[in-house]
Design a protein that fits this description.
Elements (H helix, E strand, L loop, with lengths): L2 H5 L2 H12 L7 H8 L3 H13 L3 E6 L2 E6 L6 H14 L1
Antiparallel strand pairs: 1-2
Length: 90
Amino acid sequence: MDLESLIGSRTKVSLLRFLSKSREWQFNLSSISKSINIDKGALSRLVKELESKKILEVKRNGKLLLFRLNQNHKFFPLLTAIFEKEAKLK
């Protein structure tokens, strides 16, 4: 069983995986969309969902919105551990 089937959303897992690997950086929608090959509209909806659950932090830099994983969220250590373990198994 892979993580996508467990969580139920390949797009959500792709976003969380990407942000987990680069957790010290902040990304805008365009750079995330290009990096993980996800339509910006779908990504925008997903980001709003994860932001409402406080899993993502959003910071405004001029007209850009920048996103990263919320390192203070209770699931942050679990998410990073899962993705690190997953990377080692590949």
